[in-house]
Design brief:
This protein is α/β, with parallel strands linked by helices. 42% of the residues lie in helices and 14% in strands. It has two domains: 136 residues, Aspartate Aminotransferase, domain 1 (Alpha-Beta Complex), CATH 3.90.1150; 230 residues, Aspartate Aminotransferase, domain 2. Strands 2-8-7-6-5-3-4 form a seven-stranded mixed beta sheet, sandwiched between helices. Strands 9-14-11 form a three-stranded antiparallel beta sheet, with helices on one face. The chain has a two-stranded parallel sheet with strand order 1-10.
Length: 380
Protein backbone atom coordinates (compact mmCIF):
# COMPACT_ATOMS: atom_id res chain seq x y z
CA UNK A 1 0.00 0.00 0.00
CA UNK A 2 1.29 3.45 -0.91
CA UNK A 3 2.38 5.77 1.86
CA UNK A 4 0.46 9.09 1.86
CA UNK A 5 2.70 11.80 0.40
CA UNK A 6 4.31 13.51 3.36
CA UNK A 7 7.30 15.15 1.71
CA UNK A 8 6.71 17.46 -1.24
CA UNK A 9 9.82 18.14 -3.33
CA UNK A 10 8.17 19.31 -6.54
CA UNK A 11 7.85 23.07 -6.06
CA UNK A 12 8.93 23.81 -9.65
CA UNK A 13 5.76 22.08 -10.82
CA UNK A 14 3.52 23.99 -8.41
CA UNK A 15 4.22 25.64 -5.08
CA UNK A 16 1.34 24.83 -2.71
CA UNK A 17 -0.86 27.84 -2.10
CA UNK A 18 0.22 29.85 0.94
CA UNK A 19 -2.34 30.13 3.78
CA UNK A 20 -2.41 33.92 3.38
CA UNK A 21 -3.23 33.44 -0.31
CA UNK A 22 -6.05 31.04 0.46
CA UNK A 23 -7.52 33.51 2.94
CA UNK A 24 -7.31 36.40 0.45
CA UNK A 25 -8.89 34.36 -2.35
CA UNK A 26 -11.69 33.20 -0.04
CA UNK A 27 -12.36 36.79 1.04
CA UNK A 28 -12.72 37.83 -2.60
CA UNK A 29 -15.05 34.95 -3.38
CA UNK A 30 -17.22 35.90 -0.44
CA UNK A 31 -17.68 39.31 -2.09
CA UNK A 32 -19.57 37.51 -4.84
CA UNK A 33 -18.95 37.55 -8.58
CA UNK A 34 -18.15 41.24 -8.79
CA UNK A 35 -17.04 42.60 -12.16
CA UNK A 36 -14.15 45.07 -11.72
CA UNK A 37 -15.29 46.93 -14.84
CA UNK A 38 -18.58 47.89 -13.19
CA UNK A 39 -18.81 51.50 -12.04
CA UNK A 40 -20.92 50.88 -8.94
CA UNK A 41 -19.45 50.58 -5.44
CA UNK A 42 -18.84 46.81 -5.43
CA UNK A 43 -17.26 47.06 -8.89
CA UNK A 44 -14.97 49.84 -7.75
CA UNK A 45 -13.91 47.75 -4.74
CA UNK A 46 -13.09 44.81 -7.02
CA UNK A 47 -11.08 47.14 -9.28
CA UNK A 48 -9.22 48.48 -6.25
CA UNK A 49 -8.20 44.96 -5.27
CA UNK A 50 -7.04 44.11 -8.79
CA UNK A 51 -4.92 47.24 -9.02
CA UNK A 52 -3.40 46.64 -5.59
CA UNK A 53 -2.39 43.15 -6.73
CA UNK A 54 -0.95 44.61 -9.93
CA UNK A 55 1.30 46.83 -7.81
CA UNK A 56 2.39 43.89 -5.65
CA UNK A 57 3.33 41.70 -8.61
CA UNK A 58 5.12 44.58 -10.31
CA UNK A 59 7.14 45.27 -7.16
CA UNK A 60 8.34 41.66 -7.03
CA UNK A 61 10.18 42.06 -10.34
CA UNK A 62 11.00 45.76 -10.46
CA UNK A 63 8.40 46.71 -13.06
CA UNK A 64 5.82 49.49 -13.20
CA UNK A 65 2.25 48.46 -12.47
CA UNK A 66 0.97 49.82 -15.79
CA UNK A 67 3.35 47.47 -17.64
CA UNK A 68 1.46 44.38 -16.44
CA UNK A 69 -1.24 42.50 -18.36
CA UNK A 70 -2.94 39.75 -16.36
CA UNK A 71 -3.62 36.50 -18.21
CA UNK A 72 -4.99 33.05 -17.43
CA UNK A 73 -1.54 31.43 -17.10
CA UNK A 74 2.14 31.83 -17.82
CA UNK A 75 1.60 29.75 -20.95
CA UNK A 76 -1.00 32.20 -22.23
CA UNK A 77 1.33 35.10 -21.48
CA UNK A 78 4.13 33.43 -23.46
CA UNK A 79 1.78 32.80 -26.38
CA UNK A 80 0.55 36.40 -26.26
CA UNK A 81 4.05 37.81 -26.49
CA UNK A 82 5.37 35.47 -29.18
CA UNK A 83 2.34 35.87 -31.42
CA UNK A 84 1.59 39.50 -30.60
CA UNK A 85 4.99 41.22 -30.58
CA UNK A 86 4.89 41.93 -34.32
CA UNK A 87 8.14 40.11 -35.11
CA UNK A 88 8.01 37.47 -37.83
CA UNK A 89 11.32 35.92 -36.82
CA UNK A 90 11.82 34.36 -33.39
CA UNK A 91 15.02 32.99 -31.86
CA UNK A 92 14.52 30.75 -28.82
CA UNK A 93 17.01 28.91 -26.66
CA UNK A 94 17.08 25.13 -27.02
CA UNK A 95 16.10 24.64 -23.37
CA UNK A 96 12.95 26.79 -23.27
CA UNK A 97 9.76 25.52 -21.68
CA UNK A 98 7.37 24.04 -24.22
CA UNK A 99 5.09 27.06 -23.70
CA UNK A 100 7.76 29.10 -25.50
CA UNK A 101 9.55 26.57 -27.68
CA UNK A 102 6.49 24.87 -29.14
CA UNK A 103 4.67 28.16 -29.62
CA UNK A 104 7.60 29.70 -31.48
CA UNK A 105 8.23 26.65 -33.64
CA UNK A 106 4.53 26.35 -34.50
CA UNK A 107 3.36 29.94 -34.85
CA UNK A 108 6.36 32.04 -35.87
CA UNK A 109 6.87 32.59 -39.58
CA UNK A 110 10.60 31.94 -39.08
CA UNK A 111 12.00 30.30 -35.95
CA UNK A 112 15.56 29.25 -35.12
CA UNK A 113 16.88 27.56 -31.99
CA UNK A 114 19.88 28.97 -30.12
CA UNK A 115 22.21 26.20 -28.88
CA UNK A 116 23.36 25.84 -25.29
CA UNK A 117 26.47 24.54 -23.53
CA UNK A 118 26.73 21.19 -21.74
CA UNK A 119 25.63 23.03 -18.61
CA UNK A 120 22.55 24.38 -20.40
CA UNK A 121 23.74 28.00 -20.71
CA UNK A 122 22.78 29.80 -23.91
CA UNK A 123 25.59 30.20 -26.46
CA UNK A 124 26.00 33.98 -26.74
CA UNK A 125 28.41 33.75 -29.68
CA UNK A 126 25.87 31.68 -31.61
CA UNK A 127 23.17 34.25 -30.80
CA UNK A 128 25.42 37.03 -32.10
CA UNK A 129 26.03 35.12 -35.33
CA UNK A 130 22.35 34.31 -35.84
CA UNK A 131 21.37 37.94 -35.47
CA UNK A 132 24.23 39.15 -37.70
CA UNK A 133 23.30 36.77 -40.51
CA UNK A 134 19.70 37.95 -40.84
CA UNK A 135 18.40 41.50 -40.36
CA UNK A 136 14.74 40.47 -40.25
CA UNK A 137 12.98 42.10 -37.26
CA UNK A 138 13.42 39.51 -34.52
CA UNK A 139 12.20 38.51 -31.08
CA UNK A 140 14.77 36.72 -28.90
CA UNK A 141 13.26 34.56 -26.16
CA UNK A 142 15.57 33.18 -23.45
CA UNK A 143 14.23 31.99 -20.10
CA UNK A 144 15.61 33.42 -16.88
CA UNK A 145 15.87 29.99 -15.22
CA UNK A 146 15.32 26.47 -16.50
CA UNK A 147 12.48 24.49 -14.99
CA UNK A 148 14.29 21.13 -15.14
CA UNK A 149 17.87 21.94 -14.17
CA UNK A 150 17.55 25.37 -12.53
CA UNK A 151 20.22 26.82 -14.84
CA UNK A 152 20.26 30.63 -14.81
CA UNK A 153 20.75 32.41 -18.12
CA UNK A 154 22.84 35.58 -18.70
CA UNK A 155 19.84 37.72 -19.54
CA UNK A 156 21.61 41.08 -19.48
CA UNK A 157 24.17 39.76 -22.00
CA UNK A 158 21.36 38.42 -24.19
CA UNK A 159 19.70 41.84 -24.07
CA UNK A 160 22.92 43.66 -24.91
CA UNK A 161 23.53 41.51 -27.99
CA UNK A 162 19.91 41.48 -29.14
CA UNK A 163 19.30 45.20 -28.76
CA UNK A 164 22.51 45.96 -30.68
CA UNK A 165 20.85 44.22 -33.64
CA UNK A 166 17.45 45.86 -33.14
CA UNK A 167 15.83 42.71 -31.73
CA UNK A 168 13.27 42.63 -28.94
CA UNK A 169 13.87 40.38 -25.93
CA UNK A 170 11.44 38.24 -23.98
CA UNK A 171 12.35 36.27 -20.87
CA UNK A 172 10.15 33.60 -19.36
CA UNK A 173 10.77 34.24 -15.65
CA UNK A 174 8.13 31.82 -14.40
CA UNK A 175 10.65 29.64 -12.54
CA UNK A 176 12.90 32.49 -11.43
CA UNK A 177 10.32 34.70 -9.71
CA UNK A 178 10.57 34.59 -5.95
CA UNK A 179 13.73 32.46 -6.07
CA UNK A 180 16.28 34.99 -7.32
CA UNK A 181 16.26 38.77 -7.49
CA UNK A 182 14.64 40.01 -10.69
CA UNK A 183 14.76 43.56 -11.98
CA UNK A 184 12.68 44.10 -15.11
CA UNK A 185 13.91 47.67 -15.55
CA UNK A 186 17.61 46.99 -15.06
CA UNK A 187 17.56 43.80 -17.09
CA UNK A 188 16.22 46.02 -19.90
CA UNK A 189 14.10 43.23 -21.38
CA UNK A 190 11.12 44.15 -23.52
CA UNK A 191 8.83 41.40 -22.25
CA UNK A 192 8.65 39.10 -19.22
CA UNK A 193 6.21 36.41 -18.15
CA UNK A 194 5.28 35.16 -14.67
CA UNK A 195 2.85 32.62 -13.19
CA UNK A 196 1.12 32.83 -9.81
CA UNK A 197 1.16 29.15 -8.85
CA UNK A 198 4.96 28.94 -9.01
CA UNK A 199 5.24 31.30 -6.03
CA UNK A 200 2.46 29.94 -3.83
CA UNK A 201 -0.38 31.76 -5.56
CA UNK A 202 -3.45 30.20 -7.20
CA UNK A 203 -3.34 28.28 -10.44
CA UNK A 204 -4.94 29.87 -13.49
CA UNK A 205 -3.32 33.32 -13.26
CA UNK A 206 -0.31 34.65 -15.13
CA UNK A 207 1.04 37.96 -16.30
CA UNK A 208 2.74 39.42 -19.37
CA UNK A 209 4.96 42.40 -18.64
CA UNK A 210 5.69 44.81 -21.47
CA UNK A 211 8.24 47.61 -21.55
CA UNK A 212 5.63 49.49 -23.58
CA UNK A 213 2.07 48.35 -24.26
CA UNK A 214 2.50 49.61 -27.82
CA UNK A 215 4.86 46.69 -28.47
CA UNK A 216 2.09 44.12 -27.99
CA UNK A 217 -1.04 43.21 -29.91
CA UNK A 218 -3.94 41.36 -28.23
CA UNK A 219 -4.38 37.63 -28.74
CA UNK A 220 -7.86 37.46 -27.17
CA UNK A 221 -10.37 39.99 -28.49
CA UNK A 222 -13.62 41.19 -26.98
CA UNK A 223 -13.96 43.81 -24.27
CA UNK A 224 -11.38 46.39 -23.37
CA UNK A 225 -9.99 44.74 -20.25
CA UNK A 226 -6.27 44.93 -19.40
CA UNK A 227 -5.70 48.06 -21.47
CA UNK A 228 -7.40 46.33 -24.41
CA UNK A 229 -4.70 43.63 -24.55
CA UNK A 230 -6.50 40.72 -22.91
CA UNK A 231 -10.27 40.64 -23.27
CA UNK A 232 -12.42 38.88 -20.70
CA UNK A 233 -13.56 39.73 -17.17
CA UNK A 234 -10.56 39.59 -14.85
CA UNK A 235 -10.20 36.71 -12.39
CA UNK A 236 -10.40 38.99 -9.36
CA UNK A 237 -9.86 36.34 -6.68
CA UNK A 238 -6.97 34.74 -8.57
CA UNK A 239 -5.29 38.07 -9.26
CA UNK A 240 -5.63 39.10 -5.61
CA UNK A 241 -4.09 35.79 -4.58
CA UNK A 242 -1.24 36.41 -7.04
CA UNK A 243 -0.63 39.78 -5.41
CA UNK A 244 -0.51 38.34 -1.91
CA UNK A 245 1.89 35.59 -3.03
CA UNK A 246 4.10 38.18 -4.74
CA UNK A 247 4.26 40.27 -1.57
CA UNK A 248 5.29 37.24 0.49
CA UNK A 249 7.87 36.19 -2.09
CA UNK A 250 9.41 39.64 -2.20
CA UNK A 251 9.72 39.79 1.59
CA UNK A 252 11.20 36.30 1.91
CA UNK A 253 13.28 35.88 -1.26
CA UNK A 254 16.77 36.64 0.06
CA UNK A 255 16.46 34.57 3.22
CA UNK A 256 14.78 31.66 1.47
CA UNK A 257 17.41 31.60 -1.28
CA UNK A 258 20.16 31.14 1.31
CA UNK A 259 18.22 28.52 3.25
CA UNK A 260 17.18 26.47 0.24
CA UNK A 261 20.62 26.57 -1.38
CA UNK A 262 22.07 25.08 1.81
CA UNK A 263 19.49 22.28 1.79
CA UNK A 264 20.13 21.61 -1.90
CA UNK A 265 23.88 21.50 -1.38
CA UNK A 266 23.51 19.13 1.57
CA UNK A 267 21.39 16.80 -0.55
CA UNK A 268 23.85 16.75 -3.43
CA UNK A 269 26.90 16.33 -1.21
CA UNK A 270 25.36 13.42 0.67
CA UNK A 271 24.53 11.53 -2.52
CA UNK A 272 27.85 12.23 -4.25
CA UNK A 273 29.71 10.99 -1.18
CA UNK A 274 28.03 7.60 -1.56
CA UNK A 275 27.72 7.41 -5.38
CA UNK A 276 30.49 9.55 -6.89
CA UNK A 277 29.55 8.75 -10.50
CA UNK A 278 26.00 10.09 -10.21
CA UNK A 279 25.59 13.48 -11.91
CA UNK A 280 24.10 16.80 -10.92
CA UNK A 281 23.01 18.42 -14.17
CA UNK A 282 24.24 22.00 -14.67
CA UNK A 283 26.32 21.65 -11.51
CA UNK A 284 28.99 24.02 -12.86
CA UNK A 285 26.57 26.73 -13.96
CA UNK A 286 24.70 29.31 -11.87
CA UNK A 287 21.47 27.67 -10.72
CA UNK A 288 18.30 28.39 -8.84
CA UNK A 289 18.90 27.86 -5.13
CA UNK A 290 16.08 25.34 -4.85
CA UNK A 291 16.64 23.04 -7.83
CA UNK A 292 18.66 19.86 -8.27
CA UNK A 293 18.42 17.53 -11.29
CA UNK A 294 20.12 14.22 -10.44
CA UNK A 295 20.90 11.05 -12.33
CA UNK A 296 20.68 7.64 -10.69
CA UNK A 297 22.94 5.47 -12.86
CA UNK A 298 21.10 2.49 -14.30
CA UNK A 299 17.67 3.34 -12.85
CA UNK A 300 15.02 4.91 -15.07
CA UNK A 301 13.33 8.01 -13.80
CA UNK A 302 9.83 6.55 -14.02
CA UNK A 303 10.97 3.78 -11.68
CA UNK A 304 12.42 6.39 -9.34
CA UNK A 305 9.34 8.60 -9.30
CA UNK A 306 7.09 5.63 -8.49
CA UNK A 307 9.44 4.32 -5.79
CA UNK A 308 9.67 7.73 -4.12
CA UNK A 309 5.92 8.15 -4.34
CA UNK A 310 5.42 4.84 -2.56
CA UNK A 311 7.79 6.12 0.11
CA UNK A 312 5.69 9.29 0.51
CA UNK A 313 8.03 11.60 -1.41
CA UNK A 314 6.86 13.66 -4.39
CA UNK A 315 9.46 14.46 -7.10
CA UNK A 316 9.35 14.86 -10.89
CA UNK A 317 11.06 13.08 -13.74
CA UNK A 318 13.66 15.18 -15.50
CA UNK A 319 12.44 13.92 -18.86
CA UNK A 320 9.09 13.65 -20.57
CA UNK A 321 7.07 10.45 -20.18
CA UNK A 322 4.47 9.69 -22.80
CA UNK A 323 2.21 6.64 -22.95
CA UNK A 324 4.50 4.73 -20.62
CA UNK A 325 7.55 5.36 -22.75
CA UNK A 326 10.43 7.25 -21.18
CA UNK A 327 12.28 9.54 -23.55
CA UNK A 328 14.98 12.14 -22.94
CA UNK A 329 13.64 15.67 -22.61
CA UNK A 330 14.58 18.32 -25.12
CA UNK A 331 16.54 20.03 -22.33
CA UNK A 332 18.89 17.12 -21.65
CA UNK A 333 19.16 16.48 -25.38
CA UNK A 334 20.22 20.08 -26.01
CA UNK A 335 22.82 19.75 -23.24
CA UNK A 336 24.33 16.73 -24.99
CA UNK A 337 23.46 14.16 -22.34
CA UNK A 338 23.33 10.62 -23.73
CA UNK A 339 19.89 9.02 -23.90
CA UNK A 340 20.76 6.19 -21.50
CA UNK A 341 21.84 8.72 -18.89
CA UNK A 342 19.13 11.29 -19.60
CA UNK A 343 16.32 8.86 -18.75
CA UNK A 344 17.77 8.43 -15.25
CA UNK A 345 17.40 12.11 -14.34
CA UNK A 346 14.97 13.20 -11.63
CA UNK A 347 14.27 16.77 -10.49
CA UNK A 348 14.10 17.74 -6.85
CA UNK A 349 12.77 21.25 -6.25
CA UNK A 350 12.48 22.75 -2.80
CA UNK A 351 10.30 25.47 -1.37
CA UNK A 352 8.78 27.19 1.63
CA UNK A 353 7.83 23.96 3.40
CA UNK A 354 11.10 22.10 2.79
CA UNK A 355 13.11 21.07 5.86
CA UNK A 356 16.37 19.37 6.66
CA UNK A 357 14.52 16.27 7.80
CA UNK A 358 12.92 16.05 4.34
CA UNK A 359 16.36 16.08 2.74
CA UNK A 360 17.59 13.35 5.08
CA UNK A 361 14.56 11.19 4.30
CA UNK A 362 14.98 11.69 0.56
CA UNK A 363 18.70 10.85 0.67
CA UNK A 364 17.95 7.66 2.61
CA UNK A 365 15.24 6.65 0.14
CA UNK A 366 17.48 7.48 -2.85
CA UNK A 367 20.34 5.36 -1.52
CA UNK A 368 18.03 2.46 -0.66
CA UNK A 369 16.66 2.48 -4.21
CA UNK A 370 20.16 2.78 -5.66
CA UNK A 371 21.45 -0.14 -3.62
CA UNK A 372 18.43 -2.24 -4.61
CA UNK A 373 18.33 -1.33 -8.32
CA UNK A 374 21.28 0.64 -9.62
CA UNK A 375 24.13 -0.80 -7.57
CA UNK A 376 23.12 -4.37 -8.38
CA UNK A 377 23.09 -3.55 -12.10
CA UNK A 378 26.52 -1.96 -11.85
CA UNK A 379 27.84 -5.07 -10.13
CA UNK A 380 26.35 -7.25 -12.86
Amino acid sequence: MATPTAIYLDYNATAPARPEVIDAVAACLRMGAINPSSVHGPGREARKRVERAREQVAALVGADADQLVFTGSGTEANNMIITGCGRSRVLVSAVEHAAVLRTALTKAVDCDVIPVSHDGVVDLAALEDMLSEDETPTLVSVMAANNETGTLQPITDVVRIAHAHGALVHTDAVQAAGKIEIDFANWDVDFMTLSAHKIGGPQGVGVAICRSRELLRPMVLGGGQEHGLRAGTENVAGIVGFGVAAGLAQAEQAGEATRLAALRDDLESALKAEVPHMKVLSENAPRLPNTSCLTMPGVRNDTQVMAFDLAGIAVSAGSACSAGKVEPSHVTEAMGLGDDEAVTAVRISLGEGSKGTHINTFVKAWLELWNRKGNSRSAA
